[in-house]
Design goal:
This protein has helices spanning about 5-10, 15-30, 50-60, 80-90, 110-120, 140-155, 175-185, 195-205, 220-225, and strands at about 30-35, 40-45, 65, 75-80, 125-130, 130-140, 165, 170-175. The protein has about 230 residues and is an alpha+beta fold. It has 2 domains: about 5-95, Homing endonucleases (Endonuclease I-creI), CATH 3.10.28.10; about 110-230, Homing endonucleases (Endonuclease I-creI), CATH 3.10.28.10. The strands form 2 sheets. It has a 4-stranded antiparallel beta sheet with strand order 1-2-4-3. A 4-stranded antiparallel beta sheet has the order 5-6-8-7. The mean pLDDT is about 90.
Length: about 230
């Protein structure tokens, strides 16, 4: 394969790696067409320098990694490819996407990789006291609504309401639902992952509720899908 061919075709062929990188870009990437030079640019930014190298390796090239101007700990990589640019457009990507982008049409068996990419880009796994919490942020309410429904359809974990937070929207899962979501994202479907978030997910799986979960917290779909992580039914 000629040098650069894999990079050019990366967003044309669905795979676990492609779905993950697409999810990460959907959350934390951008695209632009420089009219002065004619360049079509696909860019990723992150505070996780080594993870950007991992993304570049998945795409198939090693573009220069540089610090974002005016920041102390944010880096970016950039691909210059008209083909990649238009393939992203065909998938539903767009310049200035933050507040208006929708949820792409993803093959069902690759949804988990896309969502993990998005969480690694624009999500948090945190402890609220002793309770595990997963939150996903976006400027696009429609994107979060559609993503939450897609996750529920595959996992049985009920779609949370989309909540406003200043200029952003977010969806949140906590306690047993966050534990099951962490298992789905980082344990049962291995692939590219941000190491520090995968480590938190592993800790989530050790968590046990101090009291019986409230009625309705665990759905039948969750029982079927995540029995190994749930307390036994009484």
């Amino acid at each position: 394969m000629p040098r650069g061919a894999r990079t050019v075709e990366f967003f044309r062929i669905w795979s676990a790696e492609m779905a993950y990188v697409l999810g990460y870009w959907w959350a934390d990437g951008y695209m632009r067409h420089r009219k002065d030079t004619g360049a079509h640019l696909i860019e990723f930014a992150s505070i996780d320098r080594e993870h950007l190298k991992k993304l570049a390796g998945a795409v198939g090239e090693a573009p220069s990694l540089r610090k974002v101007s005016g920041t102390t700990n944010c880096y970016e990589i950039e691909f210059c490819s008209k083909e990649m640019y238009y393939d992203l457009l065909a998938l539903g990507g767009m310049p200035n996407k933050s507040n208006v982008i929708g949820f792409p049409d993803i093959p069902a068996h690759l949804l988990v990789h896309f969502v993990r990419g998005f969480v690694d880009g624009d999500g948090t796994l945190v402890w609220n006291g002793d309770r595990p919490v997963i939150q996903i942020y976006s400027g696009s309410k429609r994107l979060l609504e559609e993503m939450a429904v897609a996750i529920e359809e595959q996992t049985g974990i009920p779609a949370p309401n989309v909540v406003a937070n200043r200029a952003l929207w977010y969806i949140k899962w906590s306690t047993t639902r966050a534990k099951c979501l962490a298992a789905w994202l980082y344990v049962e479907n291995p692939g590219i992952a941000l190491d520090r978030k995968a480590a938190i997910a592993a800790k989530f799986l050790e968590w046990q509720p101090k009291k019986r979960p409230e009625r309705g917290t665990i759905t039948e779909g969750m029982r079927e899908r995540f029995a190994a992580y749930l307390p036994p039914q009484e």
